[in-house]
Every structure is written in C-alpha cells, then in structure tokens.
Write a structure and sequence with these properties.
CATH superfamily of the largest domain: Thiolase/Chalcone synthase
Number of domains: 2
Structural class: alpha+beta
Bound molecules: coenzyme A
Number of helices: 12
Helix content: 25-40%
Radius of gyration: 21 Å
Order of helices and strands: EEHHHEHHEHEHEEEEHEHEHHHEE
Distance between the termini: 26 Å
Largest sheet: 9 strands, mixed
C-alpha cells in the first residue's frame, strides 16, 4: 500500500496486442450447442434412464444480457470452435523459439516503447504480471527481456485479474529503489484455461496482451505522461474463483485421477467460479477500496474524470462506479471494452486505459482499478501531467 507522496513516478506509454481471431457470441454458442447435441445424442440412453443429466444449451442473448460480452479475441479460433476439441490449439514450440506468451507480451511492449519514444536501452527491468504463466521457469519476464534486448532484470508475478495494479505498484517500488524505467506487461491467453464445455462460463474470457512503461519523474516528460498519485492493494482469500492447475497435476495423473478429457474434463484444473457470489462480494470490496483510497489522498470521487475498471461483467462495473460516484456513470466516465474483448483478466483495465484516455487535459485525474481472484484488488490514481 502506497499513499500519495510526491508524484515521483509516471506512466509514459502503453501498448496493446490484440490477436487476429475474433469469435462472436453467436459463433461460440453455435459451437457449444452443437457439442450439447452431440453429447446428448451420445448419452441418450443414460440420460433417458436418469443416470446422467442432459446438457442444456447456451444462448447468445443470455451472455450479452448477463455479462455485456459480445465477442472475444483468441490466439486460435478453430480449436475453440471445433466441437471435438473446444480448446485453443497452441502447438508446442522448440525451446529456441520465443514462447507464445512472451511473443504477445513483446508485441504489446514494442507498441508501448514506440508510444514513449524509447528503445530497449532505456528500460532497466521487466515485470510480467499475469494470471497464468506459460511455464515455471525461466521466468516469462526474462524471456521477454531477452527478446527485446533489455539489459537489467525481469521477473514474473501473478495476482490473477488484479495483476496489472500489483505490477504497477511493483514497478513504482523498483523505480523508487533506483531503476530508471520499468516495463510492466500483462500477456493473457485466458482461452487456454477456460472450460469451453461449461455453459456457465464458456463465454467469459478472451486473449490479449498489454504493456505499461513507468519512469522516474525527475526529468521533464518528452511524451504524454501520467503521474501516479497513489496506489492501493488489497487481498482477501476466497474460493469463489479458482484455477487449480499447477506443477503437481501430473502427480495426480499417475495415481489414476486424471480427467477423461472428452467427457469429464477435470474442470477443477480450469477456471471455475461462483459468479453470483463473486459479484456480490467483489462489488462492495472494490468500491470501498476506491472510495477510501481517494479519500486518503484527498481526491473527491467526482473529481475523477474516468474510471478504467477491470472488465469482467458490465453490471458489476456499473455497480462499482455507482457506489463510488453516488450516481450512474456514463460510458465516458467508465469505459467498456469487454463487449469486444470479453474478460481478459489482468489486461482489462489497461486495455480500457490504453484505448479510452482521450479528452484529458493536464491535471485531470483518473483511476485504473483491477480486481479478481484471490480475491484481489488494486487501484492506481493517475493525473495527466503532459
Ligand atoms: N446460456 C443460457 N443460460 C445460461 C447460461 C448460458 N450460457 N449460463 C447460465 N444460464 C442460466 C442458468 O442456468 C440460470 O438459470 P436458472 O435461473 O433457471 O437457474 C440463469 O441463466 C442465471 O445463471 P447465473 O449463473 O446465476 O447468471 P448470472 O446472472 O450470475 O451471470 C455471470 C453469470 C458469470 C455472467 C455473472 O455471475 C458474473 O459475471 N459474475 C461475476 C464474474 C466475475 O467477475 N468473475 C471474475 C472473473 S476474473
């Protein structure tokens, strides 16, 4: 937790990499429903005898109404839509080739470097802050650092959907400890940990990568810049959003508890949530965090021009903005990207900040706020400086 000291660190560039393959709700639902027909036909006898339940169909109308999501991008459309697979097909690469997660992060980082008019030589460290790392080690950040040609250091951190706020706070601390500039990236291939056979959640996530460059604010800014007025982090344990995938999964397989991938996917090792409970518990937690943070740094909620909120569910964001402002926020005050991108975990609030920060004058204030599994939440209050 850091309160407003002097605004000694600023954001000077952001980048976004969007995978080329978009999937609309209608396409996703068509594939899901074809899978449901196939499953129900295949197990018709068991269903008729009451031994197993028939699967129910999904609906594009429900998805848009319940979540605000209309589409998502993914690194592999075909694998996701193939009813005999229902997962992205991401072929393994040789160790000598750049990994997929590092590659999308590098794409976003290059855009951020261009925006800040910098080269790799200007960066001292890389923080890769995301929900799922492609491997245990070497750290993804070290591979990203190498691909960009950055001298210095890199490390990974994971605080689920709140990772970007925690990553900004970490970058800020590293700069206060002496680094000139930190590159913070959020590569998210969420479709690889989503259970596309689960009607309750098959529509939730998409893939993307974002990047943010932070620098010490002791020289005049050369490009657009945003002073960080304060950050606040919060975690509170909850089982309501989980992903139990981890390095010990192969041990379970040896004991014969492995999933039959086709019919009984081991959903425990993919994203699972109690969506209603998440909604109910996270809305007050986040709105109270933002309110107390703003209060502590002497900024009134109505002095905030824009809230770049984590993008998980439209009504959740509307509720949070309403609780913070005491009135409804319009789309300009709380921009929405989840209609196009779906939930992109740690990247959501940064996509919103990247795409919707026009119309700010020097001195205008905004809040980047990320939240999710853990529970975890973080707010970053920024003021346009140049
Ligand atoms: N198509 C059609 N109907 C569906 C459906 C689908 N894909 N999925 C669920 N339904 C049905 C349910 O069976 C239920 O039917 P019932 O009322 O007859 O029992 C009904 O729709 C409502 O389901 P529910 O799961 O309660 O919906 P919801 O309104 O809570 O919306 C979420 C679901 C996931 C969109 C919502 O809970 C949410 O976004 N929560 C917060 C999630 C979040 O932020 N997670 C953080 C991840 S980082």
């Amino acid at each position: 937790m850091t309160e407003q000291q002097s605004a000694d660190v600023r954001i000077i560039g952001t980048g976004l990499y969007t995978p080329p393959g978009a999937i609309t709700n209608e396409e996703l639902v068509e594939s899901f429903n074809a899978y449901v027909d196939q499953y129900n036909d295949r197990f018709a006898d068991d269903i008729a005898a009451g031994r197993i339940a028939a699967l129910e169909k999904s609906s594009a109308d429900f998805i848009e109404k319940a979540s605000g999501i209309k589409a998502r991008y993914t690194v592999d459309r075909e694998g996701v839509l193939d009813i005999n697979r229902m997962a992205p097909h991401i072929p393994a690469r040789d160790n000598e080739e750049i990994s997929v997660l590092a590659e999308i992060a590098v794409n976003a980082a290059r855009e951020a470097l261009r925006a800040a008019d910098l080269t790799a030589a200007d960066i001292d460290g890389v923080v890769c802050a995301a929900s799922n790392m492609q491997r245990g080690y070497p750290a993804m950040a070290v591979e990203i650092q190498d691909a960009l040609g950055i001298e210095g250091f890199g490390f990974d951190m994971n605080v689920a959907c709140a990772s970007a706020a925690f990553g900004i706070e970490t970058g800020l601390g590293l700069i206060r400890a002496g680094a000139r500039r930190i590159l913070m990236v959020n590569p998210e291939i969420c479709t690889a940990h989503l259970n596309f056979r689960d009607r309750d959640s098959h529509f939730i996530f998409g893939d993307v990568a974002t990047a943010v460059i932070l620098e010490r604010a002791d020289n005049p800014a050369q490009t657009e810049s945003w002073e960080i007025l304060g950050t606040r982090l919060l975690t509170k344990f909850s089982n309501n959003i989980r992903n139990n995938f981890g390095f010990m999964n192969h041990c379970e397989r040896e004991t014969g508890e492995a999933p039959d991938a086709q019919d009984t996917p081991n959903t425990d090792k993919l994203f699972i949530q109690e969506g209603r409970k998440v909604f109910k518990e996270v809305v007050p937690m986040v709105s109270e965090m933002i309110n107390s943070h703003l209060n502590d740094i002497g900024v009134g909620a109505n002095d905030v021009k824009r809230f770049w909120l984590h993008q998980a569910n439209l009504s959740m964001n509307e509720f949070i903005a309403r609780k913070v402002l005491g009135r409804d926020a319009n789309r300009e005050e709380a921009p929405v990207v989840l209609d196009e991108y779906a939930n992109t975990s740690s990247a959501g609030s940064i996509i919103a900040f990247h795409k919707h920060r026009d119309g700010f004058s020097v001195g205008d204030i905004g809040v980047i706020c990320a939240f999710g599994a853990g529970y975890s939440a973080g707010s970053v209050v920024v003021r346009k400086a140049s």
